[in-house]
Amino acid sequence: MTLRDRIFQIIFESDTPAAKGFDIALIIMIVVSVIIILLDSVVSLKARYGDAFVIAEWIFTVIFTIEYALRLYCLDRPLRYARSTYGIIDLLSLLPSWLSLIFPGTQALLVIRVLRIMRLFRVLRLMEFVGEGNLLLEALERSRQKILMFLMTVMSLVIVFGALVYLIEPVEAGYTSIPKSIYWAVVTLTTVGYGDISPITPVGQFISAMMMILGYSILAVPTGVFSAEVMRSIHRNHYSDEACPGCGHEGHERDAKYCRRCGTWLNEEADDPRRKELDAEIEELQQQREALDEETRRLEQERDGTPPSHDGSDSQDVHDKRDSPDSPPNDTPSDQR
Q: What is the CATH number of the domain that holds 146?
């Protein structure tokens, strides 16, 4: 095994003690580096430990840079990894430190390193959670048109209500322009309510109340759409659309072998193993039936006094020998006979 292969097993694999130790140490350094970045933003702590924070930050940056270079070195196609999700996250976790040499203040973007903790799923064998996340992304992808239509409707509502309140409310209330009124409409429709702008006329207050009620109502729309797509994704991933050849029932699990209603074999490309067993049992029963029929015929022949042979060839040969002209004459006296 070459040095490159050893590096690959340690960095990318997790089934050896060395690989697991490397992953755990990497995750610990990522967490510590993110904590240092957070503490460095506190003015009092930065005034006392600013130099130590900077030194620790650059130590982690150098270590992560070497680790990123080793990842590219031990791969046959490094550019493909660099364009992958993990590769982009690794690169983004390094760039702020090096860019800070040119653009001071970009160190705050180093919190992107916290995304590298996603490697914890691979270390702890929790990749099924990644699969569940992909299921949610798939559902979001399929519901994008409905959600986009919902957003366009909401934007139309806030523009209309914003313009309406701009016409009703006086300038003293803070509605100095239509964009400022649209901002108020967004805050009101989402039921956030910052309170920096509020209507003072009865009509404006009535519109605000209606918008708040409408905001609670429309929140159920995207939630219902997304939930329906999630359930559809779960059903599509776990259930098959193939119909049962026996009863025509659909909606079986993908790993189901028999219909849950009639018990018919579902895989039409393969033979039913139960059919082979039944055929073997039927053949055995037929053999036993033939043996019983043979025994029955033999017992009937013994009861009637006929020879055991089924075709009567033995008894026929005896009669032929008696009646044959070539047979020697019978000189036995009649009295002896």
A: 1.10.287.70
